[in-house]
């Protein structure tokens, strides 16, 4: 019992520190965050307290108003912090991969399954909606990456639906802050075992990172990688 209490006490400072850090980061992008949170809390508490005075139950409604004010403030803070984080990530390479990693349970994300020299990149996510290819980069260049990746997967998972999403702010593109919502709107057509089987087949196919030959340890100066990569024995 004492161990559980000690662990909880040790975790609380970490959580408070994380909240404070999140607030500081949010305030850099949203200077009015403090005023907004204060207004939400005060108005919520004030409304319930006024209702309590009208019906002659100020204590009960005051306590309820205090709890709901805290809840409303936490919800508003979470949404504005998320919006500020998306604003800072917008346009940064790999931003979509960060969103996919936090999409929630039931999804398996593989970042950078395809990439070109211009750093246009395609990420892959597998879930009950099937396979979703999420592309970042120039719309004209990234179309060829998507087409090549679809053609490669068609030989292995032809029976699984494939969706493609292009992250951006232009026509036909999905904004970074709406990527998670867009992913969750796709109809669920696969069962759990089918998702597992799809992941296994795609894992056997490999991806850009796992197929890239990387030397172990520092490479000696003047040494060149052999053409065609390492050969299997």
Structural overview:
There is one protein chain. By secondary structure, this protein is an alpha+beta fold. The protein has two domains: 14-87, no CATH class; 93-209, no CATH class. Helices cover 56% and strands 12% of the residues. The chain is built from eight helices and four strands, in the order H-H-H-H-E-E-E-H-E-H-H-H. It has helices spanning 2-29, 33-54, 58-89, 95-101, 139-154, 179-185, 192-205, 208-211; strands spanning 108-115, 121-127, 130-136, 162-167. Strand 3, helix 5 and strand 4 (162-167) form a beta-alpha-beta unit. Helix 1 crosses helix 3 (58-89) and helix 2 runs antiparallel to helix 3. The longest helix is centred in the N-terminal third of the chain and has 32 residues, at 58-89.
Q: Whole-number radius of gyration?
A: 25 Å
Element-by-element helix/strand order: HHHHEEEHEHHH
Per DSSP, the total helix count is: 8
Number of domains: 2
Profile the largest sheet: 4 strands, mixed
Residue share in β-strands: 5-15%
How much helical structure, as a percent, in the residues?
Answer: 55-70%
Give the beta-strand count.
Answer: 4
Across the major sheet, the strand order is 1-2-3-4
> pLDDT under 50 segments (min length 5)?
1-11, 208-233
Overall shape: it is: elongated
Mean pLDDT: 77
State the end-to-end CA separation. Answer: 57 Å
- Class per helix and strand makeup: alpha+beta
Characteristics of this structure?
56% helix, alpha+beta, four-stranded mixed sheet, DUF4191, 8 helices, membrane, transmembrane helix, 12% strand, 233 residues, 4 strands, DUF4191 domain-containing protein, 2 domains, elongated
């Amino acid at each position: 019992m004492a161990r559980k209490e000690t662990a909880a006490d040790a975790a609380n400072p970490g959580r408070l520190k994380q909240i404070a850090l999140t607030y500081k980061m949010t305030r850099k992008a949203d200077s009015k965050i403090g005023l907004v949170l204060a207004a939400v809390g005060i108005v919520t508490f004030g409304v319930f307290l006024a209702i309590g005075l009208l019906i002659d139950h100020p204590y009960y409604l005051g306590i309820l108003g205090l709890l709901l004010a805290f809840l409303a403030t936490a919800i508003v803070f979470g949404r504005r912090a998320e919006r500020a984080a998306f604003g800072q990530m917008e346009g940064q390479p790999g931003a979509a991969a960060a969103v996919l990693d936090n999409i929630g349970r039931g999804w398996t994300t593989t970042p950078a399954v395809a990439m070109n020299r211009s750093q246009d990149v395609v990420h892959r996510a597998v879930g009950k909606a099937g396979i979703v290819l999420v592309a970042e980069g120039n719309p004209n260049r990234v179309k060829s990456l998507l087409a090549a990746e679809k053609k490669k997967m068609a030989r292995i998972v032809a029976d699984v639906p494939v969706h493609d999403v292009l992250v951006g702010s232009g026509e036909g593109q999905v904004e970074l802050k709406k990527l998670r919502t867009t992913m969750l709107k796709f109809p669920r057509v696969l069962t759990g075992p089918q998702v597992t089987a799809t992941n296994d087949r795609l894992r056997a196919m490999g991806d850009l990172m796992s197929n890239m030959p990387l030397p172990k340890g520092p490479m000696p100066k003047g040494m060149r990688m052999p053409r065609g990569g390492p050969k299997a024995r």
